[in-house]
Amino acid sequence: MASSSSIHARLALVALLSATTFYCIHKYRRLKRLKTLSLSPSTRRGKIFFISETGTSKSLAQRLHKLLESNGIAFDLVDPTSYEPEDLPKETLAIFVASTWDGGKPPKDGEFLVDWLSESAEDFRVGSLLLSGCRFGVFGVGSRAYGEEFNAVAKEMSRRMVGLGGAEMVPLGEGDVDDGELDRMFQEWCDGGYKIIGSHSGVKICRWTKSQLRGRGGCYKHSFYGIESHRCMETTPSLACANKCVFCWRHHTNPVGKSWQWKMDDPKEIVKGALDLHTKMIKQMKGVPGVTPEKLQEGLTPRHCALSLVGEPIMYPEINALVDELHGKRISTFLVTNAQFPEKILMMKPITQLYVSVDAATKESLKAIDRPLFADFWERFIDSLKALQEKQQRTVYQALSVKSNGEYEVACEHAHSCCVLLGRTDKFKVDGKWFTWIDYEKFHDLVASGEPFTSRDYMAETPSWAVYGAEEGGFDPEQLRYKKERHHHPKPQAVVA
Questions:
Q1: Residue 114: how many CA atoms within 13 Å on its side-chain side?
Q2: Where is the signal peptide (predicted)?
Q3: Which residue in 6, 175, 266, 487 is a FRET match for 84, CA 20 to 30 A apart?
């Protein structure tokens, strides 16, 4: 929702404050990478450690070990009671499946290993490079009923490994033994979170897609713009990026570059592959509590595509052809770019909504936060914001912080995601009512017509429950709010006679 005011004002005027700026979770084709590393003659065999009390973590570790073996990847399954922790600096690949027991402590079979990590990390004589040759991943198994102690052991191990120089090749995974989805969460963690398409694209099933399939509410885009979260596909045509942002969860194992240097897949094949893999993941939700046959059937026909999974989608040379392919199937497009390719923004055909990430307000802070590859990154950033003004369709500044301004008001909120939407009152407020939602059918008709159009031509009235200040807090009343019961175990109390 671009403004015509100065660049510095535009930096402070934000259309969206969204946690999803940071929720770009990177999980690569892990099995392939593990296979390459484990077969290298200069490396030891990878290790899978289980720290288990009741056998749950052990069975998960055994499942992962079997999966790796079936893919020809050499790993040893390790009981920590028979392992010497001082050998850990010799390891090149280590995976931990760790349970948390009463009091946030590890089960007995893992006490020595966990204590060794803690003591080593706190010993100034050891140094911060002890595990610099080790890449690792940690999956925690615990119960949220224990509050702050939930997966305390896994969190501690991850922190200590990093503190000793280990490279965390995948974000910490956390499983809850009480929510009925432990197996699914572990499988997603093992699979890498998203599926690879061809040589440079990916697709993922979002947790909000799963949530609305189960009738438990949609994401902020449902509250703000009226998308159907259970019919939204999250994908990207480019796993590569021109930034190495400090907050990125990709852990910088994806390719980086200032221009396209890779084999290019056909846009039709990317869209086909994304839809095929997406529908397969939707089908896996069959039988999950709350998923009705009607919702499942709707989910098999996506109406929206979030081009924001990982990397920089606008780098893909055939991005316009890919967007055309989606629009031809009447699938709306929400594209996020990192403000380093202004010329690409200018050449983009109309899309449903274009986001530009605004991660900092000064040249120095942008360099420190986004760590861009381009030497002229600031000029590109400014030009990207200017390019946003030229777009006649809906635009959004997705930023880290916001400032008040007379043209903008808080229009909507999604309390669950801790984010709000600031909208231009002169564009999206009519007769005292907000029109932040999108008439998707009208948008597709406008695209098909080939005639020029603007954001006003396909806006729709925002329902009362999504407007800021409503008691629903952005939660659709047609959905069933799910609040998990917490059974906190009382801690032993001292008895004084």
A1: 25
A2: none
A3: 175
How confident is the model over 331-379, as pLDDT tens digits?
Answer: 999 999 999 999 999 999 999 999 998 888 899 999 998 899 999 999 9
Shared-domain flag, residues 122 and 198:
no
Q: Based on the domain organization, do 5 and 80 belong to the same domain?
A: no
User: Within a 13 Å sphere around the CA of 73, how many CA atoms are in the beta-carbon half?
Assistant: 21
